[in-house]
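Lab channel / #folding
Pinned by the channel admin:
"Please post every new chain as: sequence first, then the structure tokens as a reply. Keep commentary short and put observations after the output so the thread stays searchable."

First post following the new format, from NK:
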Amino acid sequence: MKHVKYIFLLPLFFLIPGFLLNGCGRAETDTPAAGTEEAFDYNKMRQTLTSHVSDTVSRVENTMPEGTSDEQKNQFFALKHEIEQVEQELTDYDHQLENALLNHSISLSDYQNQSTKLDNLEDLLDSAEERLDFSFGMEL
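Reply from TO:
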């Protein structure tokens, strides 16, 4: 049982030498060099996700339970579904970042930068979900 916690460190032993041998010293930008097969505008995608999160958070903050019990359930589940969709977009983006890092299309520092910003978006969405649960008196 004592060695189980070290299993999580095992992937690092494979990634770190690869970065050192391949020289992860690409210029620090938020996007890969033009012409690479992974050419993808990470800033634009993050801005799109930021907008989706902001819109969803705003809808949650501006929605109060109204109508009959069934109407309130419909309101709640519509917003809950919207939050889940945005969460899936964030998860997909996280996977894109991980793949880009593994394919050496972004540097480790770019990945960490984007990942930190993604974590902040996830935190905002989590807070909105908690407010929604509290406003409607429902926790799933």
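NK: DSSP finds five helices and no strands in the chain.
TO: also worth noting, The radius of gyration is 20 Å.
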